[in-house]
Specification:
The chain is α/β, with parallel strands linked by helices. The chain has 2 domains: 29-176 and 318-361, Rossmann fold, CATH 3.40.50; 180-314, Phosphofructokinase domain (Rossmann fold). The chain is built from 10 helices and 15 strands. It has helices at residues 42-57, 121-130, 142-153, 178-199, 214-223, 237-249, 288-300, 320-338, 358-361, 373-380, and strands at residues 29-34, 60-64, 77-80, 107-111, 114-118, 135-140, 158-162, 202-207, 227-229, 255-260, 272-274, 284-285, 304-308, 344-349, 352-357. The strands form 4 sheets. Strands 3-2-1-6-7-14-15 form a 7-stranded mixed β-sheet, with helices on both faces. A 4-stranded parallel β-sheet has the order 9-10-8-13, with helices on both faces. A two-stranded antiparallel ribbon has the order 4-5. A hairpin with a 2-residue loop joins strand 14 (344-349) and strand 15. It is elongated and about 70 Å long. It starts with 28 loop residues before the first strand and ends in a 7-residue tail after the last helix.
């Protein structure tokens, strides 16, 4: 009886820096992308992924530009080498670019003059295979991670890294970018104190956070705000105006009010700049600061000014905490690939970096507890929440 010898699969090798001692593991070609809105720390994650993969294992990292769109467009991928990540640690934004509109499962196309939504995820899968990737590291928020989970269900080897300045992902105690956003907002509050006091005005600072009030709460507490309005505690405008009047009566001629963009009045809804165009898009929040300012001026006569911090919260140099957390997340993502623990997202719990299933990490949001310790501490020192 004649037997056939099956040739063994050749293991690829790659040169690594002479000063390193890479562990003996199979060569891997790993893709990495950044999706959703940008935030401080994304570049630090990319740096950690490349350096950890190359120094320890001699792997090849392929950068995919503009989120999942890069898997659908020729010429949007390139090899990331050590020279490409030098100097990235203090740099905000992402060298790969990002988009919050690139969902291959709900791709918008023009057909006969009409916008239609089609599923072209199979094209992204073919691109993944054509690139000969062994895994894909998805760095993004809830939306990007949901897309990553869907691709994992289709057979793609996905590892997730959570990213959001809103700090609203339930599965992790902290996300990088949040602390930097809080610092930016706190510095703005510090500056508003001086101009508010000079003119005896009520100064409103509107901050991001969508439906979570973490940025408003922590920056307001750190910056010495007099009133903090967050989505989790619907406000009564009468209480807000009453607080301002009492300050004036006791000799405090100015007031600092921090308002989360998702704040809403009792019995009312959020203020929307632009409604969602369809089921696959999100409404754009904003403008609540101006609404509240008009009501304060009308009811109290106090001149009120509004500062909308906007995308300043997404930019700039990441804080030391965010640089460290980003680095730890990037290293852990590489380790999950090495261990072939796919379909998981790195997370930060009890001061340790760990991982959870992506499917358990998305969909549920971490919101401020209206009766939690931080809110109680703020109220104990006289900060009002409009309730």
């Amino acid at each position: 009886m004649q037997t056939m010898t099956v040739p063994k699969k050749k293991t690829k090798t790659q040169a690594v820096p002479a000063h390193t001692s890479p562990r003996k593991v199979d060569f891997k070609r790993v893709g990495v992308l950044t999706g959703g809105g940008d935030c401080p720390g994304l570049n630090a994650v990319l740096r950690a992924v490349v350096k950890s993969a190359v120094f320890n294992y001699g792997w090849e990292i392929i950068g995919i530009n503009e989120g999942f769109e890069g898997l659908l467009t020729p010429g949007k991928t390139h090899k990331l080498e050590l020279k490409d990540v030098r100097g990235l640690l203090p740099r905000g934004g992402t060298i790969l670019g990002s988009t919050n509109r690139g969902n291959p499962f709900e791709h918008k196309e023009d057909k006969e003059g009409k916008k239609v939504v089609v599923d072209i995820s199979s094209l992204a899968m073919k691109s993944y295979e054509k690139l000969e990737l062994d895994a894909l590291i998805v760095i993004g928020g809830d939306g990007s991670l949901k897309i990553g989970q869907k691709f994992y269900n289709m057979g793609m080897n996905v590892v997730g890294v959570p990213k959001t300045i809103d700090n609203d992902l339930m599965a992790t105690d902290a996300t990088f970018g949040f602390q930097t956003a809080v610092i930016t907002a706190t510095e703005a509050i510090d500056k508003l104190h001086t101009t508010g006091e000079s003119h005896n005005r009520a100064m409103i600072l509107e901050v991001m956070g969508r439906y979570a009030g973490w940025i408003a709460l922590e920056s307001g507490l750190a910056g010495g705000a007099d009133i903090i309005l967050i989505p989790e505690i619907p406000y009564d405008i009468e209480e807000v105006c009453g607080k301002i009047r009492r300050r004036h009566e006791t000799g405090s001629g100015f007031s600092i009010i921090v308002v989360a963009e998702g704040a809403r009045p009792k019995g009312g809804d959020v203020t929307v700049l632009r409604a969602a165009k369809d089921a696959s898009s999100l409404e754009r929040l904003g403008g609540v600061g101006n609404v509240i300012a008009a009501q304060i001026t009308e009811q109290t006569g106090v001149e009120t000014r509004v500062t909308v911090l906007g995308h300043l919260q997404r930019g700039g140099t990441p804080s030391p905490f965010d640089r460290i957390l980003s680095t730890r997340f990037g290293v852990e993502a590489v380790e999950l690939v090495r261990q072939e623990r796919f379909g998981r997202m790195v997370c930060y719990r009890d001061y340790r970096v760990d991982s959870v299933k992506i499917e358990d990490a998305v969909g549920a949001f971490k919101l401020v507890d209206p009766d939690g310790q931080m809110v109680r501490a703020a109220e104990a020192i006289g900060i009002g929440f409009g309730r």
